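Case study 2.
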Amino acid sequence: RFFFELDRDSDRPLVVWGAGRNGKDLVKGITVYENGIEWVCDNEKKIGKDIYNIRMRHFSEIPDLDNPQILIAIASPDAKIEIEEQLRSWGKNPIRDYWFFS
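Prediction:
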């Protein structure tokens, strides 16, 4: 909720990264505030499938989006480090471009 009150820029696409329990819970909560979110992960079994009426995409599609805001809902500490390294390689910065949610 606070993200939407303080940091959400409705002119930018919103992306949720993570298709596990945390990601699903976040998406359920977000749909109260937002329509048309993008949802990405690295799980080949989920990519291309519709979950909660949202088509799951591969995270490598993030650079194709126009200046997205990215909410990351990943439980694994190692995966969080890898994701942050990937985002930085794309020129993304914390708080301006991405946020971690638990």
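The two ends are 14 Å apart (CA to CA).
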